[in-house]
Structure formats: C-alpha cells, structure tokens
C-alpha cells in the first residue's frame, strides 16, 4: 500500500564525530569547507571505486549495506554544497539469501561468505578511524528466522554491530541516495530499487511539493509515497530458475511481478501524476546498471559512463530481448554481467519489465548510487557539516 515516509533520522540518532575531529558543536575542526571553495566550490562526484587522495583531518563517514545478494561498504569525506568524496569502497557478492525463500533460514555457507566479507569491511573501518557510521542489513536478515542469531555472530567475529532496517527506511535511503537524478523539469518520477530479496518503489511528486529543496535535503520533501514488494532477483530466480530462462519462463516472472504492481496501482492510482511526456522512471540497482553497460557495449563496467545516463524505451527493449535470447554461458561472457550475475540478471529484467508495463515511460535514468549514498547523506546532514550552505545535487 502507499505510505508516507517517516521523517529522516535526527542528529541524536546518528553517531557523532570523534573528539579528534570535531569542535564542541559537532563541526569539524579542519578547514575542509574553505579548501573546497578554493578549488572552485563544486562538490566532487561520488565515485564507487578505489581510494581517494589523503583526507587528513577531514571527518570520515561510512555506510555499509548487507543485502540479500551483496555486501557493500562506502566511506567518504564531506565536500562543499552537499557533496562528498569517496576515500574507500568495497563490494562483494555474498548471496546471503541463497535458499532462504525455500527454507526460511540463512544457510551456513551463505553466512560464512557474508562474515568473510564483513571482516574485510571491519578492517577498512578500523584503518580509516571513521567518525560516523551506519551499518544496515536488509531483506535477508529481516526474513530469516535466524537473522538475529547471524548478526550476533557477526558482532562476535568482526566487532561490527549491524541494524536490521525496515522496508520503509530502505526505501527512504534509496531515495536520498539517488533522488538528485530526478529531472528537475519533470512533474514526477517513479524511483525503484531492485534488490536481491525485495524491491522498493518510491513516488516523487514535484508538482505537489515544488521544485526547491526541502529543509536542505535533496529529495525527502518530494516523496509522496512508497511501496515494497517481497520480490528481488534472488527470490525470483530461485522460484522460476535463473540459468535456463526461456521466453515463456521470463513471461511468467513478469506476470508474477505485475500482479503485485497492479494491485498497488489499483489501490492508489497514479494516473493523475503519471504522464509519459512529463514523468520518467529512475532505477538504482545492478539490473539497470547492467542494462546500461550492455547497451553501451562496455569492454568492462565503468561507473562514470553509466551513472546518470538516460535510456530510451527502445534501447531497454533491445537489451532485454537480446539477453532473453542468450543462454547462461553467453550472458556470463558479457563483461558487464559475468558468471556471478548471469543467473540473476533476467530476474531483474523481468521486474523492470513489469514496472515499465504498469508505468510506461519513453525514458529511464540509470543511477549507480543508492542506499549507501543515502546513508552518507543523512549522516552528514545530521552532523551539520553543510550547515549554512546551499545544498546542490551531486553530479
């Protein structure tokens, strides 16, 4: 059902800067703001790859997202006007939710893979002396009967204390992370995040809330509602099969997702806002970034060429049709897919296809950013690092 999002986290709920990097009011002692202005006052792009230049005494913030399929960590320092610069990142496919739909529990092998990845994250966090962090777990841990037991093991082995967030929080963080890519001239957009175990959809209505910023935030004030489906690339591929997908089995996946979306649309008609010429889709997930990479025929995935790109209806159709026509080995040979995603990509395409059927749009914008960037944005806002500045959309 369509719901209003609760207000974002308040400063008291967010870890403060360490004493070595803060003034009494929680502001950094370093002059990073002035340095950023001398460099031209523009925020640095939020890159997912590698380690940035030395950050000295600048406060470091960290966001960790343990999902059904991936374990991801992002660490960054604030820049002027609502921007931040990534200083370290980590991502590994762990398939924590493998077999969960059938058994209701996290398997030993899946937990072992996740703990190994989280141990690397813990070492990175220690090496950067992080000032503020938020570490979240999503659908797999929400759904599993042994989810809390697993997180206790994580705490014992790695020292990391993860919180299981609800779907509402997950939707809000996704919106915070990529909402600045909503076309400022559009009436609205449907923002979607196709995950491993669930998929979130957020309605952004610019007509109702205006086109300016709300409380210094880039997107929260524009969110009209959200919904979440208990369907993701892992759950859908396990149900219908992901390796050997035929046009018929692909159509069945689309049909299953469409049933969830159409029930949502019937209860809360978006016809008054959804006009293809004045609205668009915005996707953040491995599915849409993979489709973009395949469309661009990249020899290897390159975030800089994918994040923010617009895809037309015809371009998306061609990529999906080509992928459905391929067998598993052919998909695995594509450098933007690989063997780790070859059995999941068509499930993601089916979810995207269902979204496009319910909300037809001639264009879709691709976001290689999401939950982690949303966490970083909320942490930095709550810590007051951009207080008194005009917050601009990150490039």
Structural overview:
The protein is α/β, with parallel strands linked by helices and 395 residues long. It folds into two domains: 170 residues, ATPase, nucleotide binding domain (Nucleotidyltransferase, domain 5); 189 residues, Exopolyphosphatase. Domain 2 (Nucleotidyltransferase, domain 5, 2-Layer Sandwich). Helix content is 39%, strand content 17%. The protein contains 15 helices and eleven strands. The chain has a six-stranded mixed beta sheet, with helices on both faces. Helix 6 crosses helix 15 and helix 9 crosses helix 14. The protein is globular. The two termini are 33 Å apart. The N terminus is likely disordered.
How many DSSP H or I helices? 15
Query: How many domains in all?
Result: 2
Largest sheet report: 6 strands, mixed
CATH architecture label name of the largest domain = 2-Layer Sandwich
CATH uppermost class of the largest domain: Alpha Beta
Shape: globular
What is the terminal-to-terminal distance?
A: 33 Å
Helix amount: 25-40%
- Count of beta strands: 11
Q: Could you give me the name of the CATH homologous superfamily of the largest domain?
A: Exopolyphosphatase. Domain 2
Q: What are the low-pLDDT stretches, counting only 5+ consecutive residues below 50?
A: 1-54, 212-216
Summary keywords:
single chain; 395 residues; Nucleotidyltransferase, domain 5; 15 helices
Set out the fold topology.
Blueprint (H helix, E strand, L loop, with lengths): L31 H7 L22 E6 L3 E9 L5 E10 L6 H4 L4 H21 L3 E6 L1 H5 L3 H12 L4 E2 L2 H12 L9 E7 L4 E7 H4 L13 E7 L3 H8 L6 H21 L11 E6 L1 H11 L6 H4 L3 E3 H13 L2 H6 L11 H14 L4 E5 L3 H13 L12
Parallel strand pairs: 1-4, 4-5, 6-9, 9-11
Antiparallel strand pairs: 1-2, 2-3, 6-7, 7-8, 10-11
Helix pairs in contact: 3-5, 6-15, 8-14, 9-14, 10-12, 10-14
């Amino acid at each position: 059902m369509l719901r209003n999002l609760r207000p974002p986290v308040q400063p008291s709920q967010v870890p403060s800067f360490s004493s070595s990097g803060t003034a009494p009011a929680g502001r950094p002692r370093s002059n990073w703001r002035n340095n950023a202005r001398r460099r031209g006052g523009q925020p640095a792009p939020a890159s997912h790859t590698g380690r940035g230049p030395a950050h000295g005494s600048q406060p470091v913030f960290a966001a960790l997202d343990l999902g059904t399929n991936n374990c991801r960590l992002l660490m960054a320092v604030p820049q002027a006007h609502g921007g931040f610069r990534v200083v370290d990142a980590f991502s590994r496919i762990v398939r924590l939710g493998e077999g969960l739909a059938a058994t209701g529990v996290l398997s030993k092998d899946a937990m072992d893979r996740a703990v190994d990845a989280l141990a690397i994250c813990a070492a990175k966090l220690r090496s950067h002396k992080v000032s503020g962090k938020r570490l979240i777990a999503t659908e797999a841990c929400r759904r599993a009967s042994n989810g809390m037991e697993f997180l206790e093991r994580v705490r014992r082995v790695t020292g990391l204390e993860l919180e299981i967030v609800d779907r509402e929080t997950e939707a809000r963080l996704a919106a915070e992370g990529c909402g600045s890519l909503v076309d400022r001239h559009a009436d609205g957009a449907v923002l979607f995040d196709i995950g491993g175990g669930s998929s979130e959809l957020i309605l952004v209505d610019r007509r109702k809330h205006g086109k300016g910023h709300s409380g210094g935030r880039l997107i929260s004030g524009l969110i009209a509602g959200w919904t979440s489906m208990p369907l993701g690339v892992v759950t859908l591929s396990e149900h219908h099969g992901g390796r050997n997908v035929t046009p018929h089995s692909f159509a069945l996946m689309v049909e299953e997702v469409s049933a969830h979306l159409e029930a949502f649309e019937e209860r809360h008609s978006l016809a008054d806002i959804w006009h293809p010429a004045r609205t668009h889709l915005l996707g953040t997930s491995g599915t849409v970034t993979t489709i973009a990479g395949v469309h661009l025929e990249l020899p290897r995935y390159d975030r800089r060429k994918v994040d923010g790109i617009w895809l037309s209806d015809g371009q998306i159709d061609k990529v999906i049709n080509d992928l459905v026509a391929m067998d598993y080995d052919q998909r695995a040979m594509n450098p933007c897919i690989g063997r780790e995603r070859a059995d999941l990509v068509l499930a993601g395409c089916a979810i995207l296809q269902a979204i496009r059927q319910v909300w037809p749009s001639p264009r879709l914008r691709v976001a290689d950013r999401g939950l982690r960037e949303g966490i970083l944005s909320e942490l930095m806002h709550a810590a007051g690092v951009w207080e008194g500045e005009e917050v601009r959309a990150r490039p």
